[in-house]
Each structure stands twice: as structure tokens, then as C-alpha cells.
Amino acid sequence: MMESDKRLSIVNRLKADGKSILFISHRLDDIFKVADRVTTFVTVRLLQQKMQGGRAGQS
Q1: What is d(CA 54, CA 12) in angstroms, rounded to the nearest whole number?
Q2: Which helix (H) or strand (E) holds 50?
Q3: Among 3, 12, 36, 48, which one has the highest count of C-beta atoms within 10 angstroms of its own C-beta?
């Protein structure tokens, strides 16, 4: 069993027990497999961008 499958199995077991779960992931397919409700947060500010050659820039 893959790691993500194990994680989803645990989440489903907790869900069946009536537990609330805060599941944070960038894997939307996993989220939609187990979620009753989804809230999406997006940060749009670029904190750092690395350029080729080792130079870094900030915005």
C-alpha cells in the first residue's frame, strides 16, 4: 500500500468515527476523495524567486 493510500485510509477511518479533520495538501485528487467540504487558500505574493546562476530576487 502506498503512503498516500495509507494516509487516506486513516482519514476515512477517522471520518467514519465522526472526527473532524483538517487535511492540508497540494494533492487535490486526494482531498476530493475524502472531503465533505473544501476551502482553498492561495497566497499570491511572490516571496522569493531563484534565478539561474545562484542569484535571488524578491518582490
Answers
A1: 44
A2: strand 49-50
A3: 12
Q: How far apart are CA 48 and CA 16, in angstroms?
A: 41
* Separation of alpha carbons 9 and 17, rounded Å: 12
- Would the pTM of this model clear 0.85, i.e. be above it? no
Q: Which residues of 22-38 are buried (b: 16+ CB within 10 A; e: fewer)?
A: eeeeeeeebbeebeeee
pLDDT tens for each residue of 27-55:
889 988 888 888 877 776 666 666 666 55
